[in-house]
Specification:
Elements (H helix, E strand, L loop, with lengths): L6 H10 L1 H15 L3 H25 L4 H5 L18 H12 L6 H17 L5 H25 L2
Amino acid sequence: MDFPLSAFTELSLLLSNEIIFFLVVGAMVFLAEKRPEKRKKILFAIIIVSLMVVMLKNVFAIERPCIISDSPYGCPETPLMNYSFPSGHAAVAFLVMIAFLDKPTFPFFWLFALFIAASRLFLGVHTFEDIAGSMVLAPIAYHIADVLWGRYFA
């Protein structure tokens, strides 16, 4: 007998789709940040953290826990990112959270980042170490983007 999935599970599975995830993040940034230059800088930072995630996933080549434990929710099959460490979803969510540290909307972005991190663990596609790595990677990527933006685009 099939049981209905909880709202948490449904939302976790929905945001697991990279296209939907990036559309949601883009809409959040667009609605929360009114300055066009800051929006562009955040987009630039997202690109940087995404490239860093792809590079690190392929350098470390750690299998996803859903492959090892056969998760009931399936395992992502993304050609460039079939590995686990670090979590790309969590890295982007934490990076966007950092971009709003000085804004009244920060608590919303903080909760969103925590939700994304918890959902990746819940779905069994990442480990705590993957999430922790993303938490370390996000401020590094944002700092790199901030420095490059100030030097070449401001």
